[in-house]
Structure formats: C-alpha cells, structure tokens
Design goal:
This protein is mostly helical. The chain has six helices and four strands. Strands 2-1-4-3 form a four-stranded mixed β-sheet. The protein folds into two domains: 9-33 and 180-258, no CATH class; 36-162, Helix Hairpins (Orthogonal Bundle). A hairpin with a 2-residue loop joins β1 and β2 (207-208).
Length: 259
C-alpha cells in the first residue's frame, strides 16, 4: 500500500476539524429522526404480538367449538343408549337384569347432564373469549393506525435526509482515510466519551467550546501557532483556534450545500 504523504500539524488539525463538522452534521440529521425509528420498531413488535394473540384466541375458539360438538355427539349417543336399554327392559327375564339396565340408563342420564354442564361452561368461555377478541381487534386497529402514521412520518424525514446522510457517511470515511490511523482512533475514542460527540472544538472566549474552564493565554497562543496537537486537560477534546475553525466551517458549509 502506498505510504501516505507527510502532512503538517496544521493540515492534520484542519482535517480533524473537517471530519468533526461532517460527523456533527450526520448527528444533526439523526437527531431530527430522534426516537422515531425506535418507536416504529416497538409499534411493529406490538402489532405482531397482538396479531399472534388474535390467532391464538381464534384457535382457542375453534377448539371450544370442537369440544361442544364432541359433547353434543356424546349426548346423542347417550340418548340412543337410553332408548336401547329402555327397550331391553321390556324383555328382561328377572329383576337383576332389570336393575342392571336401570343403572345403565341412570349412568347415561348422568353423562348427558355432565355433557350439558360442560357445554354451558364452554359457551361461557366462548363469550368471554369473543369479548377479549373484540377488545384485541380494537387495540390492533388503533396500533396499526398509529404505526402507519409514525411510518409515514419517518419515511418523510428519511426522504429528505437519507441521501445527504449517505453522502456524508461516505465523506466521513474518505476523510478518515486521509488522517493517520492513531489520530482517527483518538478522535473516535474522544467522540464516544464526550457530550454531543464533539471531539474537536474551537477556542471560544478563552475556553474550549462548550466548556467554562479558561485556557491560559500561553496555551491559547500555542494552539493558534498550530505546531502541535493540544487537548483540553478537563474534557480531553482536541483544540483548534477560532480562526482555523471559522475557515473550515465556511469550506464545509459550501460542501454541505452541494450534497
């Protein structure tokens, strides 16, 4: 691989600040989207969960209907047996046979009573489940409408910003390629650990951007000389002078306008 051309400290600082401006612009775009992608994902999960619940409830209804049919068949079979045993009682030869058939009739009558009791219980369960299904369908419709609204909202934002974001991500990668790996790693580490992802900041009113800690005048002069890379002792951010920052902002502003 070809060795990268040696660049001055000032060129490194300008490249780092450019990279920061690009990444900050990406952050701004993502902040506009805010929590929307997460909200959409949560709503999609909720809708899927409600649909699964409805499927299970429908399956449960079918199962109860099958149980009722089975009990009705049992009742018909019991009635047929009662009729059969009643007919047989007319032709018995002794009391023992008569009593035995009477017990069979009584057993089948109990079976009918028990089956009818179960059918009533199943019907109550069906009504309860139908109520739950109705409520679940209502909730599902409401969540689907909400999801559609949020998706449209997200799609509109994506349509406006996605092209620019992708172009900026590519620019960020290109700029990183032009900076020494150790500096990119340091930049990424600082950016991850500080508020607002600002790893490279300009001196503002004698302090590093976003900080209230004053930087000694001699350090400010050293930063302005652009002879070495200096970090803020309080936040760890890389510091650049206000003039360099303004020059790079104007340059990058023109580039952003073309994206």
């Amino acid at each position: 691989m070809a060795k990268k051309k040696e660049i001055t400290v000032e060129e490194r600082l300008r490249a780092l600040y450019d990279l920061q401006l690009i990444d900050s612009r990406i952050d701004e775009i993502r902040n506009v989207r805010g929590e929307l992608p997460l909200e959409v994902r949560d709503l999609e999960d909720e809708v899927a969960g409600l649909q699964t619940r409805l499927e299970k409830l429908d399956g449960s209804l079918e199962s109860l209907d099958s149980e009722i049919s089975a009990k009705k068949n049992l009742i018909e079979e019991a009635k047929a047996l009662i009729k059969k045993y009643s007919e047989q009682q007319k032709n018995v030869r002794n009391n023992r046979e008569f009593n035995s058939l009477t017990k069979e009739v009584e057993f089948q009558e109990l079976e009918i009573q028990l089956a009818e009791k179960h059918i009533k219980e199943f019907k109550v369960q069906i009504e309860q489940k139908k109520e739950v299904i109705s409520e679940t369908k209502e909730k599902l419709t409401e969540r689907e409408d909400h999801l559609k609204h949020k998706k449209n909202e997200l799609d509109a934002i994506l349509a406006e910003t996605e092209k620019e974001e992708q172009a900026l991500i590519k620019k960020s990668q290109d700029y990183q390629q032009e900076i020494e790996e150790r500096l990119v790693k340091a930049y990424t580490r600082i950016r991850t650990n500080v508020k607002n992802g600002l790893a490279v900041v300009a001196i503002e009113r004698g302090a590093s951007g976003g900080s209230f800690f004053t930087i000694p005048p001699q350090v400010q002069m050293e930063i302005a000389s652009r002879k070495r890379i200096i970090t803020d002792e309080h936040s760890g951010r890389i510091l650049v002078d206000a003039e360099l920052a303004e020059e790079q902002k104007q340059k990058m502003h023109k580039m952003f306008a073309k994206l």
